[in-house]
Amino acid sequence: MSKPQRKLTTILATDCVNYSGMMEDNEQETFIGIKACRKIIEDTIKEYDGRVFNTAGDSVIAEFNSPVDCVNSAIEFQQLIGDRNKNFADNRQMKFRVGVHLDDVIVEGDDIFGGGVNISARLEGLCEPNCILISKAVHEYIVKKVNTIIEHMGERNLKNMDDSISVYQILKSN
User: Fold this and answer.
1) The pTM is what?
2) Class in CATH terms, 5-173
3) Mapping DSSP to helix (H, G, I), strand (E, B) and coil, where does residue 165 land?
4) Are 149 and 75 in contact (CB under 8 A)?
5) Backbone angles phi, psi at 32, to 5 degrees
6) Closest to 18 (Cα-Cα) out of 123, 92, 76
7) Residue in 54, 34, 52 with CA at minimum distance from that of residue 43
8) How would you write the pLDDT of the chain (174 residues) with one tens digit per residue?
9) Cβ neighbours of residue 78 under 8 Å, at least 6 residues apart?
10) N or C: at which end does the chain have fewer Cβ atoms within 10 angstroms?
11) Around Cβ 137, how many Cβ atoms within 10 Å?
12) What secondary structure does DSSP assign to 136-167, as a single string?
């Protein structure tokens, strides 16, 4: 067995809030909505030189060479989806949560494994609808390079992880 390939990369994890409930309520409309939102997300990720490497239903996981590009991509697609939501009743709006982390990961073919992926997904799980949470590792790279207001949320324990991490929330663009 060959030695696994490793690299440092920025991982973005996002999913739709209450997707299962929306599917249960109106499967056809939710399917159309999630396809439209996923197109916005995936197109924006590509625009910022990111690469989607995993999807499932309402979730997208992508990698970026640059934490700055990753966070700018997330800010942009959250704004675009917010603009789209203005055309829908509150109960039909698709709201996404985003977690972003920078870490050394294992690469196998087109897939990525490791703590970086898990931490991004856990950050996304802590996130409020329409928000973006980033780790301290990402914050250190973007703090003076992304035109946004960032709030330190303190140390947080992540599901199934022993150590807490310092978490920051992207509040809005300046």
Assistant:
1) 0.94
2) alpha beta
3) strand
4) no
5) -65, -45
6) 92
7) 52
8) 678 899 999 999 999 999 999 999 999 999 999 999 999 999 999 999 999 999 988 999 999 999 999 999 999 999 999 999 999 998 899 999 999 999 999 999 889 999 889 999 999 999 999 999 999 999 999 988 998 889 999 888 877 777 788 999 998 654
9) 96, 98, 130, 131, 132
10) N
11) 18
12) HHHHHHHTTTS-EEEEEEEEEEPTT-SSEEEE
Give residues with Cβ within 8 angstroms of 24, minimum separation 6: none
Strands 59-64 and 51-56, sheet pairing: antiparallel
Position 150, amino acid: I
Q: Are 102 and 139 in contact (CB under 8 A)?
A: no
Task: Name the amino acid, one letter, at 44.
Answer: T
- Indicate the DSSP class of residue 91: G
Per-domain residue ranges of the chain: 5-173
Q: Give the C-alpha separation, 123 to 157, whole Å.
A: 10
What are the tokens at 86?
A: 């203005």
Residue type at position 165: I
Encoded tokens for 110: 């087109």
